[in-house]
Design goal:
The protein is mainly α. It contains six helices and no strands.
């Protein structure tokens, strides 16, 4: 997981594990993609992001979100509904 990798660039596995309340083994699994943190652990990861790490972490989150939306739109067979989905996404972002 890219967020974990980013956080590990400035702290040890043991330190990050302590900060987010999981074992060092769990952190290793997140870092190498063998496991994904649940929503609670992800929230704790985001809570320990240092100010100098925020831009990179936000870029990762935004990239993942955009890729997920593109995948979802790509699954819609009917062009009419695909266009409706795009319009709704644009409207919600403009908010």
């Amino acid at each position: 997981m890219k967020i974990v990798e980013t956080l590990l660039s400035s702290r040890s596995i043991k330190q990050l594990a302590s900060e987010i309340g999981v074992s060092p083994t769990a952190v290793r699994k997140y870092a190498n993609g063998r496991a994904s943190p649940d929503d609670e652990v992800l929230a704790r990861l985001l809570s320990v992001v240092a100010p100098y790490e925020k831009e990179k972490v936000y870029d990762i989150l935004l990239g993942d979100l955009i890729n997920s939306i593109r995948s979802l739109i790509g699954l819609i067979d009917d062009p009419k509904y695909r266009d409706i989905m795009r319009e709704r996404i644009i409207e919600s972002v403009r908010g």
